[in-house]
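Supplementary Data S3. Sequence and structure tokens for construct A.
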Amino acid sequence: MKKTTKFSPEVRERAVRMVFEQRAEHSSQWSAIESIAGKIGCSAQTLCNWVRQFERDTGQRDGVSTAEAARIRELERENRELKKANEILRLASAYFAQAELDRRNK
């Protein structure tokens, strides 16, 4: 289930770049974010989240990068599939073992 996004990756990238470019013209990063968010039509918190994620992706901030998060999601999905497969194999093995015991008793 994929989320639909109102803003394209190019718009997000440009907005984040504008925050860093205009940071010197404002008293704080938050005021730069508020100014730019109004111009592109998103909330200041949304733009702040984009900036924080960019900082994590470039190593300027601690946390999980976008690539690492995607890898974790993929590994978790694979892990779920393997657990399901193991459960199916365990049940099948038990079923056939019981069938073999029943056949020997007759």
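Construct B, processed identically:
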Amino acid sequence: MHRILITGKNGQVGHELQRSLAPLGKLIATDRQELDLAQSGARIEQALDRLQPDIIVNPAAYTAVDKAESDEATANAVNAEAVGVMARWAARRGALLVHYSTDYVFNGDGERPWREDDATGPQSAYGRSKLAGEEAVRLADARYLILRTSWVFGAHGANFLKTMLKLGQERDTLKVVNDQIGAPSSAALIADVSAELIRRYLSGPAGFAFGTYHLAPRGETSWHGYAAYLLQRAAEFGLALKIDPANIQGIPSSEYPLPAKRPANSRLCCDKLKNTFGIELPEWQSGVDQVLAQLLQASGYDKAHRE
């Protein structure tokens, strides 16, 4: 039975991976206490020697985008140095490494969706650390998949979707940035596609197409469009909102300054994933609908509303 190591089991993607990967092997799901990627490379290697995974799936990351501007060393330790340690260990042992990256590795210019072979140019410490992690994986010459995602959300963990739902019930006015464009990517979708790719690898590693792929749903929106769609759907589900979704105000990024620069263009072209593996990705709205339904059901609101 294949031993599959999942890092960051309490994160959004890590949580969903435990569900999607369970049928594929013996899962070894770790959190920061069990495998701290900020610690020395020697200690990470010792942990890998002890766990002996055949597949390493690494959703763990330093994701505090603004904090990384003043703590780039820690961001690099987790997002780059630790990733290099795992990649080199995988190369020596013939293991597969599945690593997740981000649209932040690009400079955010233009309006065309980014392709895997486009020139990178991160504009933040977080983006630089994630790009360094990608480069460490490629240099290690391991069997690898790098999956770049954008605007990740899920029913588990903290994210923009949950924040907007909470604020929509508390406030009658909201201002949301409308000049950053991308596709909200559900953690469940990322985990399900990851499982399908690993399944195919296990069925025929010799001819498997390793490499870097973009993984985000079809379509595009702004953060403002995302919030407006979410709260409109929440109202249709029967959730009592204080705000009218039609009255959410769109604002430029310049009116909401943050320490780290956000990409204006977070669009990811996923043609390579489709053409290589035949995987059809859904529209972004379907993931939002699914997570919204999950959250309402888990809170008991959905049942109470039906009754």
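The chain has ten helices and twelve strands. Residues 210 and 267 are 22 Å apart (CA to CA).
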